[in-house]
């Protein structure tokens, strides 16, 4: 009953199994193994084009390394002010790239061509005093659990092309966004104008596996060195590739994401219906931010449901994140409990105990 | 029959099992889980003192992050000119620390107080034009498969103390060195004056797991930020901790290392006895560098034995690395084949094939 | 008649003379000369306390180096979103410190305890995902030509102390601010709680000379190395010190600043009185931002007056900067011309020419 | 009578005069002034080709910035182990470039194709574990006061071309080398295959002025940003350009260098003739390293002659550096005194005093 984050979940059993299976005999290290080769093919198929893929273990590494390939040290990278890259990576993108992140406001954690245009207006191209805008990074799904439609992504990509900016997508929750969009991976990415994708798997079923996917091969030219220099090249690469390979097998990634999103939708539907409750953002992936009366959230916590308050959403706002491993029972239990507290017909476990004493 | 490196091996089955076992239920992320807690205790026990431990996935990350905590950006770090840190990490230690690595020559890939003294003589303390010597890093076992005796480590540590330098050990093959030394982990490290250890597990049975172990807690004060900023903090940390926990359980690490070393010793004993063969370095861990007649190494390669030539050791020098997974049969087969080629009684598989055609 | 910036001016003759005078005989390099010694004394006297002083040639170097001594690589530095450090140093502060600058909005280019409190609320102390707030930087005078009163500085310093943040002042126009405040250098800085000052001289009469002044000596502990490692240590340091020494002699710095401010005040008084004109910010130092009818600014430009439009202030906003070298005649001429255009009694030089043709 | 370094000298009067002359009226900042324009032309003429020139104030800045334009962060830069870049810039080249400097031994502080070939043999191109050799830097004149002949430079440049390395020259004492070579600036640089030159002026008569000269314009593409981001762009650029302009006017730079070299030659000729004296290196520019009996050097120091012992050359080795400002009288006085001490006919001033007491 832990809704704190999708990273409180373990791994999909299929992925654990894949590790055991990959553990056969000797294999050349550093990506020279057959499993990694197969993985490259698989990515080509899934994205319906030739892509360049570099597996790494964490989302922060994927983002920071990807951005370091997209902006020079004197460049700037436009991002949302609530993005993971700006807020939750302890400066990793700047460390890896040397570039400056420029945080921008935007509703529901999303950027738009208008927001970007306004920001770009403050930079003078070729003016050595200004860092030079080099890239834009979007989170898909966003940190608010919202998604960019294909048209929204394309509009931003068009602006990027026009202004000679590279476009990156932080896809830590890419699968959740994709199943919500209902389009193909290609449509959601390079056909919409994306240059590089941090393709997340950890939050959606892997132990620790992400892939930096380059749609523009030229950007990847020195990525191997960058990854190694950062200590993110695994010697026993097969164990990173095996995770991603299993993740992409039999649509595991999409099934996991669909489940997580469905669980979020159920929670959202029920909680938003409580008296006095409001959703802070549309629920389009596997996260919801909802304001509920204080006694409801206190009751839930007392019952052992785990989640975080969300101060940015106001005093009574909480964040709930679902995952592939979130069970229908947990969701139902939470809804029932919340409805009980809202209706005043339930006492919290704590209260019970206190009464008992 | 792959002797290219210890990282061509997979993982110990116990470690794969531990991942499956760790994959139960929800668990708080980023190291706030019970398994990581237990791991910390285990390290305290093994080192017989309170240590500060940070798991990461790669040896390069462990070294580079450790060194970044031991030297300021204007500092210098003395290392062997054939060390992994200097040669094989694509500049990661410099990237992470900002400091300058200073490569020094020394027999059998080892440093000594005399070598360090001579090098330090070129630096003027307090002179702003010079980077300021801040740390020394040793590889244990060394890249030549040799080891520092406890006395040798202590002599270097004494010099470091006197000169106000921190002492780091790259223990990518620490277990191999330890079983060769035959002393306790504490005697091999902090009791000998070590400040920080990169405690390797990947080469000796883990999938991807190392630990930065601080014997001097003060050095670890900001390590959590450094690890995160480098993208080396796993969200599902339990899967990193589970590997290390299993590695340390029931002496798996020592058993694996003893086996690897024994295999290397067998190979060394037999190959050194071949006519015209010489060992480049004493064989004290799980690596051997041996010069064998060209037709012997060609024959072995043709038979499917895999290993690398070692140009630094001369035209006929080859490197063989054994691992926990190297089988007695493989070793016997190689010895037999080598002896056959040396005696001129064997034809290589390639020759056979060619004859057959 | 160039009001583009205070750096279009040359140097005060006294400062050129000082260079010639310093050019006598041999002198030990890198700051081991008597002139640099004397300069240190002079700074102690002027600030009425023992300070630690490092001369450098540019304001960007002063700021970036100062901030690098005040924040760790995983730290963050709060600044105004229109500050020179954020906008006009091409990322130098981040390059030198490794830290992240966090841009904040605030009226008239000024920060306040309230603005800082709100920003700090987004950071969780000890949370490794967040960069850790380490310092605040203020520009005095600000980039809007406004100044912080001593009370305003102190209020921010108090907050900094409480939150364990260091306080830096970008004093590229410190003299202009000081004469406007009418207090002592000590009152404007360390007595108000400041830790480090970038003491500017270039804009106010030097060729190229600034000083990083540490009121907290502990912060300066490794500054010598930082300056050298950045290539900002002059070998013939006497020529940097000579500039600063002359700048501080006989109140040259204060006289220059008073003149520049007076010229700005005259311009402001007159231009603000034009029909349709408004000042964007209070004029408290040597810069003014004023909205004037388009035909007025066009006329002035055509007459050969030089200045920049200021897009951030709206379509008709222009920026005028005065300097020690701005003559009363130039100011009078500009006022007269502006009044003429505003009253419709003047034709621009361009118009004249066009009429003539 | 100070022979400690060429940076103990002041500036040529012509250069001080040029500053005064440049101090006329307003001038656009940051290099948009007519004097900087003229300087660019002048460099084109002197080098008989179109070059790209960026003035900066220090030699360390020139070297570090130049190298940052020549090597990627995962690159390596081969240099001599006694070069200024390796030993005396506190890590500036690594800080600016992110690349790794690789120190190499070589007689008389010089590199050769053979030395470079051997070093390159340790790097595997395209192997992500190795930093990738990207550039070579030579010091001309070298830190031993020796020079590369045009043929020697060309031989190294040919190797660089073949191995796809860029070639940089640290010309802190370029003028001293040039007059010794007796060839044209073009022959000594780009015609010999050089890509980038740190053109020094400070040691040979400027206050603080060097120029990064790109013969390969493509390398300069982002240099403006790099210089600004490092705080090395002067706002009142005319004062940097004025120094260099005067330096190049009427052959001042060559006249100064010829004088300095002649003074060194006189000293070398006389001191090498002393009984028991030997020169450590050929004297080809303005530095000499000479071993003299201890009582001679003690006597000279007691007489007030200033110079440094040179430990690397042995216990009795001293270094003497001459400059444009070194007078014939000082040189004669030193020779006479040295000869006196060597012959036993002189007592040191100290001895006199002691005797007198």
Which features characterize this protein?
globular; seven-stranded mixed beta sheet; homotetramer; 11 strands; four-stranded antiparallel beta sheet; alpha/beta; 357 residues
Structure in words:
Four copies of one chain form a homotetramer. Chain A is of the alpha/beta class. In chain A, 42% of the residues lie in helices and 15% in strands. Chain A is built from 15 helices and eleven strands. In chain A, strands 1-7-6-5-4-2-3 form a seven-stranded mixed sheet, sandwiched between helices. In chain A, helix 1 crosses helix 11, helix 2 packs parallel to helix 11 and helix 13 crosses helix 14. Chain A is globular. Chains in contact: A-B, A-C, A-D, B-C, B-D, C-D. At the A-B interface, helix 1, helix 3, helix 5, helix 10 and helix 11 of A face helix 1, helix 3, helix 5, helix 10 and helix 11 of B.
Question: Care to count the β-strands of chain A?
Answer: 11
- Please estimate the helix content of chain A: 40-55%
Radius of gyration of chain A (Å): 21 Å
What quaternary form is this? homotetramer
Rounded mean pLDDT score of chain A: 95
């Amino acid at each position: 009953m832990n809704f704190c984050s999708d990273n409180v979940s373990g791994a999909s059993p299929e992925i654990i199994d894949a590790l055991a299976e990959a553990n056969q005999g000797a294999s050349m290290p550093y990506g020279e193994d057959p499993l990694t080769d197969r993985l490259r093919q698989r990515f080509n198929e899934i994205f319906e084009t030739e892509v360049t893929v570099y597996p790494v273990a964490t989302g922060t590494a994927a983002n920071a390394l990807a951005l370091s390939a997209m902006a020079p040290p004197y460049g700037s990278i436009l991002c949302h002010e609530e993005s993971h890259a700006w807020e939750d990576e302890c400066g990793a993108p700047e460390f890896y790239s040397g570039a400056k992140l420029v945080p921008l406001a935007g509703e529901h954690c999303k950027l738009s061509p208008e927001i970007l245009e306004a920001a770009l207006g403050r930079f003078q191209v070729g003016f050595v005093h200004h860092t030079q805008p080099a890239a834009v990074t979007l989170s898909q799904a966003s940190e608010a659990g919202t998604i960019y439609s294909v048209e929204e992504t394309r509009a931003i990509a068009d602006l990027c092309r026009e202004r000679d900016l590279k476009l990156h997508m932080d896809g830590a929750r890419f699968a959740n966004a994709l199943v919500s969009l209902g389009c193909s991976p290609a449509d959601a990415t390079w056909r919409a104008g994306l240059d590089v994708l941090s393709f997340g798997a950890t939050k959606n079923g892997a132990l620790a596996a992400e892939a930096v996917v380059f749609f523009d091969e030229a950007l990847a030219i020195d990525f191997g060195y960058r990854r190694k220099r950062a200590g993110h090249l695994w010697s026993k690469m097969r164990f990173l590739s095996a995770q991603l390979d299993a993740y992409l097998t039999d649509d595991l990634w999409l099934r996991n994401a669909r489940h997580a999103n469905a669980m979020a939708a159920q929670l959202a539907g029920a909680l938003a219906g409580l008296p006095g409750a409001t959703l802070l953002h549309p629920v389009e992936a596997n996260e919801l931010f909802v304001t509920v009366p204080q006694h409801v959230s206190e009751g839930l916590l007392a019952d052992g449901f785990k989640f975080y308050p969300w101060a940015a959403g106001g005093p009574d706002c909480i964040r709930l994140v679902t995952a592939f491993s979130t069970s229908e029972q947990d969701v139902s239990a939470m809804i029932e409990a919340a409805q009980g507290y809202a209706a005043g017909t339930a006492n919290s476990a704590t209260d019970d105990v206190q009464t008992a004493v």
